[in-house]
């Protein structure tokens, strides 16, 4: 459960009616939270409320929020206990009053016109979900690249926009949403068809998208309107958890889109393969071998899975630079559609 902790004034007395409810889930985000908040308050779209939900932080996150609480648009909620990211966002959705709901991770920032650009997409009454590209930067704010839609030829394109519907739902198997920070959705869909899936601890926005396309249109904008921070050291700590998160997400997406079952084993194989490559890069040969073997069992026709499996038995040891070269070679060895 989430309880209201603070706002500049009682919510019922706010004189404006927000068009968009922006939700920032927070857990020990004191180092980056201020930038995220400022990027929301600087939006060219002013008819918004910002709901920050603290999920049991033990750092100075609450002190950071206090710097902005005088702004009538800022609302702070606190979870009574640590609930996890999906449940935390759902707590904010229940408190939200906007016609649209948008999400922002505590360590990401928006371009100042992010909401303005996305709201224009909803002029089409059948669009219920929109998201955009991102730019990736490291902890030192160095540019690391930008997200490209995985299979643009599969979507209906108009300028820089790509539509996703049940007709081309196989796109979802590539997990094409780079971050929850890119997503905006009509609140009415959440009210009618359910909130975020709390079984998931990653990718709840993709699972939501897989439900939306059963009823309405989803639009991707190739303009990078979000800057996402990629933290160093995360892969080593979270690699096993992320594999399980992706497999769980795959199960939920296929449950929502049963016609994707014919592609399920191929996608499951690729998840294990990518995880195996990361384990191999980190020197975890035994773990990599296990993932590559599962790739083979799920999709036995891809030669690169066998090559990767064989390389894990090399006893000579491989330096990090050589491992990177091997990984690149493996990725080029056989076309992913083979």
Protein architecture, described:
With 338 residues, the chain is an alpha/beta fold. The protein folds into 2 domains: 2-234, Spore Coat Polysaccharide Biosynthesis Protein SpsA, Chain A; 257-333. Helix content is 38%, strand content 21%. The chain has 11 helices and 12 strands. It has helices at 33-41, 61-66, 85-95, 114-119, 187-193, 204-212, 234-256, 261-281, 285-298, 303-311, 320-333; strands spanning 2-7, 20-26, 48-54, 74-79, 100-103, 109-110, 127-138, 143-146, 156-158, 161-164, 184-186, 217-230. Strands 1, 2, 3, 4, 5, 6, 7, 8, 9, 10, 11 and 12 form a 12-stranded mixed beta sheet that branches. Strand 3, helix 2 and strand 4 (74-79) form a beta-alpha-beta unit. Helix 9 packs antiparallel against helix 10 (303-311). The longest helix is centred in the C-terminal third of the chain and has 23 residues, at 234-256. It is globular and about 60 Å long.
Count of discrete structural domains: 2
Strand residues, percent: 15-25%
Which stretches are low in confidence, meaning pLDDT under 50 for 5 or more residues running?
8-14, 334-338
- According to CATH, the fold-level topology of the largest domain is Spore Coat Polysaccharide Biosynthesis Protein SpsA, Chain A
Total helical elements: 11
Whole-angstrom Rg:
21 Å
CATH class of the largest domain: Alpha Beta
Task: Give the structural class.
Answer: alpha/beta
Globally, the shape reads globular
Instruction: Report helical residue fraction.
Output: 25-40%
| Strand elements, count | 12
The span between the termini is: 48 Å
List keywords for this structure.
alpha/beta, Spore Coat Polysaccharide Biosynthesis Protein SpsA, Chain A, 2 domains, 12 strands, disordered C terminus
